Amino acid sequence: MPGYTDPSFDTLALHAGAAPDPATGARAVPIHLTTSFVFESSDHAAALFNLERAGHVYSRISNPTNAVLEQRVAALEGGIGAISTASGQAALHLTIATLMGAGSHIVASTALYGGSHNLLHYTLSRFGIETTFVKPNDIDAWKAAVRPNTKLFFGETVGNPGLDVLDIPTISAIAHEAGVPLLVDSTLTSPYLIKPFELGADLVYHSATKFLSGHGTVIGGIVVDGGSFDWEKSGKFPELTQSYEGFHNMVFSEESTVGAFLLRARREGLRDFGACLSPHSAWLILQGIETLPLRMERHMANTEKVVQFLASHPMVSRVGHPLIDSHPSHALAEKLLRFGARGAGSVFSFDLKGSRAQGVAFIEALKLFSHLANVGDCRSLVIHPASTTHFRMSDEALAGAGIGPGTIRLSIGLEDPADLIDDLKRALKAAEKAGGETAKPAKA
Amino acid sequence: MKFNLQTPAGQSYVAYAYTGGKAFDPAKPTVVFIHGVLHDHSVWILQSRYLAHHGFNVLAVDLPGHCRSGGDAPSTVEEASQFIEALLDAAGVEKAALVGHSWGSLIALETAARLKERITHLALVGTAFPMKVSPALLEASLHEPSKAMHMVNVFSRATLAAPPSGLGPGTWVFGTSLALNRRVLASNPAVNVFHRGFVACDSYANGLQAMEAVTCPVLFLLGASDQMTTPRAAQSLVQQAKQSGKQFTVVNVPMGHHQMNESPEETLQALKTFLGA
């Protein structure tokens, strides 16, 4: 820096937010394991608290290691800044709690991570925030769900676990017409596979636990503001556009024309709810992000091979990846994702032919795939959503999210794809045997 | 804070100035902050808020036709300077310090030259004279503003790792600037304020005469790695200040063109020292 063009993704993944440590010369990002930061003087302390000077006070509010992570993810997303949180769920909660209170309403996609659905449907309704769920690509349903008290549209870039690609340009236009922002969960796509802000989204969050960290070692989340939504013009967000007694009577939208959301989210949400990220966790996520472009390429390549294998196997009735031409989001994936349908992520589901017992036999026969509740690891993972991640959902809600009782979800890792396919072959054979001769499918 | 003003043609409009989170108090000395092209008052968030809480009135303006201010976007530095004078009159400010960034530095310079002793201090941040804009950039600002914004943003930046900035820790200053650029451009559907501002910079010819006419102390606050207004491009004004016997100071901060958010602390310290805060 500086150069003549925008820094590329790969460069930002390594350098955004970080410079050699001026105190020690350390090239890698130091882990600042300290709760607090010494004030230079009483005046310095007062100025930091009053947002007259920028700096760190207390690690629940900000920390230098976390700040590097926040700048880096904001850079990769093309946003104005970010706030790291204790988990992806904490990022979602922080976003919602910053934008609304009791009496508000959200329109959300049905194709959500089970935990997100749970938060919206059960927990937030207890606090007076209602959610209407609509099928992600039922455009008329998004329009029809808008109420006078609607404050947010929300969906996943590729819905969990059916990989319904969210039509961000169309849905964001409906949201903006209604005077509300579109928040997207881009966990499964990471910043590498889609650019939600360029497509019209206003806020993006990630469970950094997944592809951003990439190694299954840390829980974390992050919310990024694209700086595009005009809170004042909307007129629906007094939290950001009117004087707030809880923080020096600040009018956040006056302080920062584009950054009101982040100002309030950090000064109120992190301060009061306290779901901050440990600096050690921030460092682990940063380590992962440094290789994000390399890993995502391999995730995509491996996924493509596994999808092709499964799609041609006689024990498989459906493969839910937009790489398959018949997938309902194939065309949208080709249009919106950076690498087309190939870039629709490496977390997808497929349906086994046969009984629930055969599904159990399949899972238990796998050797390389780990049976656990996570995705986006460098190792390949498998889970049965109906009995784990989405078990709180009713059958009707489950069907609405595109999940059947026999659906298996895979998260394709970075192993040699030939070994992954061997593992799947063995497990599919076990499932076939578990079904006996009557359930045995005809050979193709 | 809002002011009812009139355009040179006599049309009424409302102008906005951020007061740093404190009520305007005529008894205090006043500092007027003037932003550059495709910016607004919020680029001064840290410095203006600090001074407002340390004994000063702050008026961080949105130039006419920019964001919260109505009126016609100024076509020339001189026209913008008349707006600053009108604002001071409307606010009842007898004397004021002026702090301007980039285009705003030329507006501050011209205003200080015209208003003489009414201006107590003149801080020129990221300044140059002449402030020529390349024909390619001028053209792009008119016909390909998005591309031009990226060009300006890259030229303006000196680091991928800015310290905690306008939004506090976690601010990505590249993105913040781009988002603000887009917002300011969109705020005026009648005029391309990007191109108009650049034309105003490019066409301003009175810099040396203005510097000679200035009667107050001058601070040159330059970015050592500034590619938009390089420290060398400010030397004509520095030399003029020297030759005409001005009391002046040159401070180089170790960053690029956006001193306020790439070097917020160094910028604040320089302003504090200069203004006696």
Main sheet properties of chain B: 8 strands, mixed
Largest sheet of chain A: 7 strands, mixed
CATH class of the largest domain in chain A: Alpha Beta
Specify the helix fraction band of chain A. 40-55%
The spatial strand order of the largest sheet of chain B comes to 1-2-4-3-5-6-7-8
Give me the strand/helix succession of chain B: EEEHEHEHEHHHHHEHEHH
Largest interface: A-B, 55 and 47 residues
Estimate the helix proportion of chain B, in percent.
40-55%
Q: What CATH architecture of the largest domain in chain A do you see?
A: 3-Layer(aba) Sandwich
Separation of termini of chain A? 57 Å
Question: Topology of this protein?
Answer:
The complex is a heterodimer of chains A (444) and B (277).
Chain A: H1 9-15, H2 42-49, H3 64-77, E1 81-85, H4 88-99, E2 105-109, H5 114-126, E3 130-134, H6 139-145, E4 150-156, H7 168-177, E5 182-185, H8 190-193, H9 196-199, E6 203-207, E7 221-225, H10 231-234, H11 238-241, H12 252-255, H13 260-273, H14 279-290, H15 292-311, E8 316-320, H16 330-336, E9 347-352, H17 356-365, E10 370-371, E11 381-383, H18 395-400, E12 407-411, H19 417-434, H20 436-439
Parallel strand pairs in A: 2-3, 2-4, 4-5, 5-6, 10-11
Antiparallel strand pairs in A: 1-7, 6-7, 8-9, 9-12, 11-12
Helix pairs in contact in A: 1-3, 3-14, 4-13, 15-19, 17-19
Chain B: E1 2-6, E2 12-18, E3 30-34, H1 45-52, E4 57-61, H2 77-91, E5 96-101, H3 103-115, E6 119-125, H4 135-143, H5 145-156, H6 173-187, H7 193-203, H8 207-213, E7 218-223, H9 235-243, E8 248-253, H10 259-262, H11 264-275
Parallel strand pairs in B: 3-4, 3-5, 5-6, 6-7, 7-8
Antiparallel strand pairs in B: 1-2, 2-4
Helix pairs in contact in B: 1-11, 2-3, 3-8, 4-5, 4-7, 5-6, 8-9
